[in-house]
Design a protein that fits this description.
Length: 432
């Protein structure tokens, strides 16, 4: 096929065969986040490149290797590789942090990372995320983790484990970096080129490198959890106690460092699947320094984001229930020109009352229209021909039971149809 009719590598289409699954997942995300008091933000798709370089960090893979950056007339812009930096910029720029704290927001957005495309790893992907600013309490960490867990349960996903860690604050990291550099020093020449450049500025990034040799070396590295200051240690202990009290199962995994530089204290990841299919469906943590670094008052903050493609892949693999595809309530089947006009009017009056109604737009025969009504899974079919127009009565066929009933085409038609529809749905539910 011609190149113009092909989608770009690392991107995906969602057709109606699957879009109802996305709608379900997005509805669950929105309703659950709102139950915790989070409100929606909508932010631009691209930001000044510097925003990501400074917050995500110039020694991360995301900034060094994966950003899609375009040159404007005078400055560079980057398609957001994640939602946190833009959301915090939005909170600051709109004065939200001067309002009652904590500020709690959520978003559903597309992100862009130039990674090697594979199942669950795309150039354009979608995240649902939440960000909370203003609370330094471990109970905020617990609430955010609880929300993520609640979502995963509502999706119907089993086989998901929660890993938590603390990567401390800049104070504890000073000591830790000394120990880490001392450990890495003898291996310095074996490290990949990127990691050699990370050695001085940000040695913790080396622990997150995907190269085989660097990850082998990283296995024996000292753990940041052993270098926490009193404040960070107490915070982590309180968080664990809170999670225990809420009966949220977790594993402390001291190797989690996350791939973005802004994190402080708590970090966490939800991992789904087994063996080769295993992957992170949700990641998050605290980033207490970001707001001040962006020029705001020092304000603690935290959040998480989940990859919606990965959520859907896992839901499909686990056979989760996506509910019924939305059904057409009534297909009005006209036979002849006069009936076509009446059908269009009836369909429109039904739609105005909130019903899903369709009629013929293809000039099809009776048989082909019945076939189409089956394809769109119509609950009812109303046949309209010259006789029906003359008598003012028509047959309403219940497509699930095959039962036909005589119905008047008068000004009470919508009301009468509504009664039939409710009775039909009720009967369907009773019959399972
Ligand atoms: P992240 O771990 O980089 O964190 O991404 C969050 C989630 O996005 C991942 O767990 C994964 O499910 C999904 N994801 C990441 N990259 C891809 C990709 N190339 N293709 C498909 N899915 C992907 C963040 O983005 C942070 N902003 C999360 C956060 C919010 N931390 C605090 N607040």
């Amino acid at each position: 096929m011609d190149l113009i009719a092909k989608r770009v590598n690392g991107t995906e289409d969602v057709t109606p065969a699957d879009s109802y699954k996305w709608q379900l997942v997005e509805r669950i995300c929105t309703e659950t986040a709102e139950a915790y008091g989070f409100k929606q933000v909508r932010i631009p798709t691209f930001e000044n490149t510097e925003l990501f370089v400074r917050s995500v960090g110039d020694t991360t893979d995301v900034v060094q290797k994966e950003m899609f950056t375009v040159m404007g007339r005078e400055s560079r812009f980057t398609l957001r590789p994640e939602g946190t930096a833009g959301t915090i910029r939005c909170m600051l720029e709109n004065g939200m942090l001067n309002e009652a704290l904590p500020q709690k927001v959520y978003y559903i957005l597309s992100c862009f990372r130039h990674e090697k495309p594979q199942a669950g790893r795309l150039w354009e992907f979608h995240q649902f995320g939440v960000e909370m600013a203003g609370s330094k309490s471990p109970s905020a960490d617990a609430e955010v983790i609880c929300l993520a867990k609640n979502l995963i349960d509502r999706f119907g996903l089993n086989n998901v484990s929660l890993n938590i860690n603390s990567i401390g604050c800049p104070k504890c990291r000073e000591e830790y970096y000394k120990a880490l550099r001392a450990y890495l020093e003898p291996h310095k020449s074996e490290l990949c080129e990127t990691c050699q450049s990370r050695f001085e500025k940000n040695p913790m990034r080396i622990l997150d490198c995907k190269s085989e040799i660097c990850s082998e070396i990283a296995k024996g590295a000292p753990l940041v959890l052993d270098y926490l200051c009193d404040d960070c240690r107490t915070h982590f202990e309180k968080l664990k106690a809170l999670l225990d009290s809420m009966d949220i199962k977790y594993t402390v995994n001291p190797k989690i460092v996350r791939g973005l530089d802004y994190y402080t204290k708590t970090v966490f990841e939800f991992i789904a699947g087994e063996g080769k299919q295993k992957g992170t469906i949700c990641g998050g943590g605290r980033y207490d320094g970001m707001i001040e670094q962006m020029g705001g008052k020092p304000t603690p903050a935290l959040g998480f984001a989940m990859g919606l493609e990965r959520i859907l892949l896992n839901m499909e693999a686990q056979g989760c229930d996506f509910g019924e595809k939305s059904r057409c309530d009534i297909y009005i089947l006209p036979m002849g020109e006069a009936a076509e006009m009446k059908a269009a009017l009836l369909a429109e009056s039904l739609r105005k009352e909130g019903f899903k109604a369709e009629t013929d737009l293809m000039g099809r025969s009776f048989g082909k229209q019945m076939k189409y009504a089956n394809t769109i899974n119509a609950r009812y079919v109303l046949v309209l021909g010259d006789n029906e127009l003359e008598s003012g009565r028509a047959k309403l066929k219940n497509m699930d039971t095959g039962k036909e009933e005589d119905i008047a085409l008068d000004d009470k038609f919508t009301e009468t149809f509504s009664t039939h529809l409710m009775a039909g749905i009720f009967e369907n539910t009773l019959n399972g």
